[in-house]
Amino acid sequence: MAKKKTDRQWLAEWQSFKDNHLKGSPVDFSETPSEKEKRKKRLEANYEEWFKYYFPKYYKSEPAPFHIASTKRILSNPEWYEVRSWSRELAKSTRTMMEVLFLTLTGKKKNVVLVSNSFDNAQRLLLPYKIELESNDRIINDYGFQAKIGKWESHEFVTKYGVSFRALGKGQSPRGTRNEDFRVDILLLDDFDTDEECRNPDRVTEGIKWVEKALIPTRSISSPLLFLVCGNIIAPFCTVTELAKKADKHDIINIRDKNGKSSWPQKNSEEHIDRVLSQISYNSAQQEYFNNPVIEGTVFKEIYYDKVPKLKDCDSVVIYSDPATSNKDKGKASTKGVIVIGKKGLKYYVYRVWLDTMGNSKFIDCLFEAYQYVISEGVDVCKVYVENNSLQDPFYEQVLYPLIRQKANDTGKALPITPDTRRKAEKYFRIEGTLEPLNRLGNLIFNEKEKKNPNMQRMESQMLGVSEKAKMMDGPDMLEGGVWILQNRSFTYNNDWRSGTRASRKY
Predict the structure, then answer these.
(1) Taking all residues of the chain, what is their mean pLDDT, rounded to a whole number?
(2) Which fold has domain 28-290?
(3) Which CATH class is domain 304-494?
(4) Does pLDDT of 208 surpass 90?
(5) Portion of the chain with pLDDT greater than 90, in percent
(6) If DSSP codes are grouped into helix, strand and coil, which group holds residue 31?
(7) CA atoms of 335 and 474, how far apart (whole Å)
């Protein structure tokens, strides 16, 4: 357990934070009282203009549409419950602070409780509120001096005009949060989940029960409550995912939108996003910036990257593909994929992978690209297998094959397509049975030159996430298909390919 900070440490941190935030917010002292009131009224009628005027050190970039829409929901509805799963660098906590101070300074709310995963973190998150109220010249000029002698501590303070703020850590008793006749009317949860706790479903459940049994009942039934949760989806089962089921709105905003563009281009350029993402792992990027936590699997704890032999020097080579029947290229569609695998001796090498949510046309392009890659590496003969079970057969006959033929006519290049029509066992057990022994013995090797390729990163992520409960295993499933083909249908003899089923080695 982390050691609690001393009063001296808190004072030093507060002073440092205060010094860093006290930047000039010039006030026009030549205004008459009537001019000031007219300006205040104008600003209070426009949320964004109010934010921009009172918080110039925070409001450095124009807001994105999702900022404006969320703020409108929160400030227009006295009784509201919203979960903000906004990526890092999208100003979750900052915008929340500006909204809460708008509501309290304009007299709409009176009792604010901010909760985080620990008491220290809750104090840290509440600190900017305290600094602004006691030091922001524009707030003081328009709304009066806020600090109240005797009730102005880092974890709990009451303004001169009777608005209370309190920081609470997860599990801490919320009793005593009444502000005279006002029960809690703004309840904030910020960074409530932790990676450690999300590994234990019982601890997550315990935290949710505390929120619902101890925290929410601090409100008044007859008075409206703003309940705002700020937190990314860091695990499939976490406080955020469960609270979101009951919220009026679950606002999920990733660093990039559904079209792959910056969600907040006014602040985060494509170049800056690319730079940050290049410096962290694929799994970390998915969790922190795309609300897509990667599940730790039960089969593969690690995969092995190494140099691979020249493709033409392999004993046998196969291209295996999984087209998935969906034509969606975004959202929750199954991933389509193509993989190039080479076998040399006892080792199986993964040379190239194309793995992503994509439409049928892009899949066909990847299929032809894979075949061209194999040919360019000096492999004269290579079969291209396409997964084709009975349930998918109409899709192949009516959709996929016509597209392949059209592509072949357009390019003048034909693919030696062979459908994989075998009846397969359940996906997880096939992957575990075929690939785990190879990986455990060091006989399944991934091309180290492709390690930073997003397609290979998606493959690695899905490999490490393989479990009976995992929903995303299309890449490992495709790999298993190709390895099985190399083990059971194809072999070399005097440099000639032979197709068929090897004699059973069971007995």
Answers:
(1) 86
(2) Rossmann fold (3.40.50)
(3) alpha beta
(4) yes
(5) 58
(6) coil
(7) 6
